[in-house]
Amino acid sequence: MQRIYPYKKRYSARVGFGLLVWMVAFAVIAAAMGVTYAVLKNGQVAESTEISKLNREIAICHMNANQYRAKTDALTNRWAMRDRLSQNGSTLRDIQHNQIEIARSSREEAGIRSTASR
């Protein structure tokens, strides 16, 4: 026959001190891991936001450069310049081929001088 002691029955549902310490330690570790994850995720989101802002700014700069290049090409177009000059009544005219002189570079002139002085 088995005897049931009232002492064991009364304290059998209680949690021991060692188990309580392990539960607290696990809760602290889990909370620290959650906080660490939140901090790291926040940093990642901030970096990705900054990268996307920089990419937008780069795209805007490229678009502005293309617009300025297109405007410059339109303003320096040979036929557009002729039309603007004629509309403004400018005295500038085309250069004839017989008016063009070939310019010598400074190296060529130095070579000519050195051979002439010998």
Notes on the structure:
The protein is mainly α and 118 residues long. Helices cover 75% and strands 0% of the residues. The chain has four helices and no strands. The longest helix has 59 residues, at 17-75. It is rod-shaped and about 125 Å long.
CA-CA gap between termini? 138 Å
Number of extended strands? 0
Secondary-structure class: mainly alpha
How much strand content do the residues show?
Answer: under 5%
Helices, by number, come to 4
What is the N-to-C succession of helices and strands? HHHH
- Overall radius of gyration: 44 Å
Rough outline: rod-shaped
Unreliable segments of 5+ consecutive residues: none
Defining traits:
rod-shaped; mainly alpha; 118 residues; 4 helices
Q: What does this entry show, briefly?
A:
The protein is mostly helical. The chain is 75% helix and 0% strand. The longest helix is centred in the middle third of the chain and has 59 residues.
Structural topology:
Elements: H1 6-11, H2 17-75, H3 78-88, H4 106-117
